[in-house]
Amino acid sequence: MPSSWQYATGQGYRRVGPAVHNSNMPTGGMVASVCDADFGAVLEEVGRGSVVLPRRFGLSAVPDGDAINVLVDGDPVETFVVELDEAGELATLVFDEAPPAASAVVVTYPVSNR
User: Fold this and answer.
1) Same domain, 61 and 93
2) 45 and 63 housed in the same domain
């Protein structure tokens, strides 16, 4: 049974030293051997952990009313709010959850002609 001081390899488990354990494990860090032939899985995990997708999108105008339509990859989304700045001149669309990477976000809404 592996301990927190060990990591999986293709040939079983290897032990890591206390410096590696003490610096990586409390922060959810990852450990891999420099002797591994393939770093694909480690790099994929690093990539997933390093990307923070945006939830906030600035609108080009302040919406006039509540008739705001939001599509993500062509599908309607209703879990968002629109925030206004203190002066009511800038609007930001805020999703409850960030849309998936590389998705198309389309927002349509009426604006005032005043």
Assistant:
1) yes
2) no
